[in-house]
Design goal:
Blueprint (H helix, E strand, L loop, with lengths): L2 H4 L15 E4 L4 E4 L2 E2 H4 L5 H9 L9 H19 L11 H9 L8 H22 L13 H10 L5 H13 L7 H10 L5 H12 L8 H11 L5 H10 L17 H16 L4 H21 L9 H11 L7 H23 L18
Antiparallel strand pairs: 1-2, 2-3
Bound molecules: acetyl coenzyme *A (ACO).
């Protein structure tokens, strides 16, 4: 259906749920997660503590940050034991598809144990799938580690530096929830039918995979590699727009100003680059591409408010942490699954079946 016939094909500005979980102010560029501004969370509050805030009031027990850390560690071990044997058969698939197939094997309950298993799954299974694709055996989780520290060790095989663990933790917090984005909406629609949390997580994974949503950061790396040097950025971008391509990592449905998550992640990339030799050249290229893209987009699409989004600096950060580009979306899911679970529970507790209507524009049948 053409957008102007209905004015609602993208559900712009439609309020489809009430939530206490997060607030996205697209005019002011402000993100609030579980009652705190993103700037006061990312790099300051550990992922486990943010999960405790998101889950508060949604389950029979309200786990403390320490209880989340312990339960999540135990769940990583349990998920690995249950699902690692099935991973080799899926290693030929992109990690996001292998992850979705493995998550479908988890129980589809509605309780806190199910929530922790789903929360643990991407942090354990994504590294297992990455290693299998590189011809290496998956590694067993360490229940005592933080979620971010364990995910990095499971991926690279080495204990990460404190700076790398802090950077991944800040990333997981930055992306853990973001209003009624496409994947969270999909998770809530599924929860509204009273299907279990596993079904909501699979819906979330499926929606996140697309390049207009969580699939963008891999192509950002292709763009940076294609540009190669700062002085080539403007010409490369002009040629991409001439072909009718979209620039991955730019534009957003809600933000009409800069996405605040981009700056949170850029700060994390800067901190990491200061600790890693050789990483600052890539950051300089990315900054040159960002400036050239904003310049070209403002000139060529003056009626659109297009700025950098979360995915641009996601690509830089996850690359610096050693994740392969085809696994970036699965790493995104490692953080966002917290939001999917919280929204699914919130909808189950407070919402109704989501069942909008469509306007029929097909052929009319003659009256009998
Ligand atoms: N590059 C070039 N043109 C763009 C871009 C872009 N990144 N984004 C929007 N536009 C143009 C489109 O071509 C379209 O113009 P047209 O109608 O003349 O063809 C118009 O602007 C659409 O603008 P909006 O209505 O603001 O965009 P919409 O809300 O439909 O889409 C979206 C938002 C999907 C994020 C879009 O900006 C996009 O495709 N960006 C690239 C992919 C990306 O980075 N996705 C990650 C988003 S963040 C996340 O989901 C975690």
């Amino acid at each position: 259906m053409a957008q102007d016939e209905c004015g609602c094909s993208g559900l712009d500005d439609v309020i489809a749920a009430e939530t206490r979980l997060s607030s996205v102010d697209g005019q002011r560029g402000e993100l609030i997660i579980a009652g705190a501004r993103l700037d006061d969370l990312a790099g300051r509050v550990p992922f486990e503590a943010v999960v405790a805030r998101l889950f508060a009031g949604l389950f029979d027990d309200a786990p403390s940050p320490e209880a989340v850390r312990a339960s999540l560690g135990a769940a990583r071990v349990a998920v690995f034991e249950a699902l690692a044997p099935a991973a080799p058969a899926l290693a030929s698939l992109p990690p996001m598809e292998g992850l979705r197939a493995l998550v479908a094997r988890l129980p589809d309950g509605d309780d806190l144990d199910t929530a922790f298993a789903l929360l643990a799954a991407p942090a354990v299974l994504t590294p297992a799938l990455i290693r299998l694709r590189q011809g290496q055996a998956p590694l067993a989780p360490d229940a005592a580690s933080s979620h971010a520290t364990d995910m990095l060790r499971l991926t690279t095989g080495d204990a990460p530096s404190a700076e790398a663990a802090a950077a991944l933790d800040a990333y997981l917090v930055t992306v853990c929830d973001h209003g009624l984005n496409a994947s969270t909406f999909a998770a809530r629609v599924v929860a509204s039918t009273w299907a279990g949390l596993g079904s909501s997580a699979i819906a979330g994974l499926s929606a996140l995979k697309g390049p207009l949503h969580g699939g963008a950061p891999g192509p950002v790396i292709d763009m940076l590699d294609g540009i190669g040097a700062p002085e080539c950025a403007a010409a490369w971008i002009e040629a991409a727009l001439d072909r009718g391509d979209r620039l991955m990592g730019f534009g957003h449905r809600i933000y009409k100003v800069r996405d605040p998550r981009a700056d949170a992640l850029k700060a994390a990339v800067r901190r990491l680059a200061a600790a890693q030799s050789g990483a600052s050249g890539r950051l300089a290229l990315a900054e040159a591409v960002e400036h050239a893209a904003l310049d070209v987009l403002r000139r060529r699409k003056p009626d659109r408010a297009l700025d950098v989004n979360v995915e641009f600096y996601t690509a830089l950060l996850l690359e610096a942490l050693g994740f392969p580009p085809d696994a970036f979306t699965a790493v995104f899911a490692t953080g966002r699954v917290a939001g999917w679970i919280a929204h699914a529970r919130e909808h189950r507790l407070t919402g109704r079946l989501i069942r909008p209507q469509s306007r029929y524009v097909g052929p009319r049948v003659a009256a009998a």
